[in-house]
Amino acid sequence: MGKVVCGMTISLDGFVNDRAGSVGALYPDFDTLVDTEPMRESIRDTGAVVMGWNTYAMAGDPDEYAESYEYQAAIFVLTHEIPAKRPKENDQLTFTFVTDGIESALKQAKAAAGDRDVVVVGGPSTIQQCIKTGLIDELHIDIMPVLLGGGLRLFDDLEPLQLERLSVIALPAGRTTLKFRIVK
Amino acid sequence: MGNVGVRFSMSLDGFIAGPNDDVGHVFSWMMSGDTEYTVTIGNQDLTLKMSEQGVKLYKDMAQSTGAIVSGRRSFDVAGAWGGRHPVNVPIFVVTHNVPQEWVDKPGSPFTFVTDGVESAVRQAKAVAGDKNVGVGGADITQQCIRAGLLDEIGIDLVPVVLGSGVRLFENIGDEPLQLESTMVSKDTGVIHLRFRVVK
Q: With a cut of 0.85, is the ipTM above it?
């Protein structure tokens, strides 16, 4: 059975985007990130992806997922409404729109992932909901060397959690990849 | 000329103390290593237990610090460090109300600054000379960031989510502040992160 992992990139002050909603300041290494060892490992280990609607909509044209998303896997999108037009899919990348809540999304994603991992890629509200279910095994947090001063906070409205550090990797552009296991 | 820096033990979710100013979790790494190191607070000795690396980082910090700027709240919460901060250097406390009992006390390391954080940092730099100025307290740190006074940020990141408490980074202004990562190091119960403020 694979793990359920929540992973996001944050500024040192804990934000996943700036006041204007842009993630640009957190991805100066956007073009090379996909070739880093932690990202290659994540792509290799991931069997299903869970994302909130806002994260899904960040792509602009959802047909781009099938063409260029780094995780070519089963994607589960949490939403209230299923979009009228179905986005493009391929042999590996499929979409399931989940309207009955986070636990259902995680359950379906685990079934689809099999022995591989489920990765919850955001946004903050989706990750907070996931953590509250108690179904998350690991947090993979990348910290970027910038203070944004505002935006959406990743860790908000949470109960205390004890963590166990698994690994610390310093990457180019000052990106620090931290992996923690949630102690249950 | 030294630099102006902060060093905080912080939870993954950004708190430097939990509810009721509880620092048990964020300081637990300083009690979980195998190397003892005794500091003196007031007239009391406190034996820390860190890794060798943790002790070295602490000693380097203490030896390179020439003065401290503190907020009034930290001063009060710490009970004025019993009149002797572990780093044992002059301390400039930013406050609106000067506690006269500490002004009159012989040998008091405290200077109370009532005309703001910039003045306190300027006075601390003058005393520190070639050494560094350490800034303490979340609110004063935020004021220093807003005023562009910080050169270095040191975070000892503790693997815990506290959920609430005293947040270090808030009210730091509207403009993003670019940092440069200068050190990432795993240690017992903590991850040392060091940053330089890009100016």
A: yes
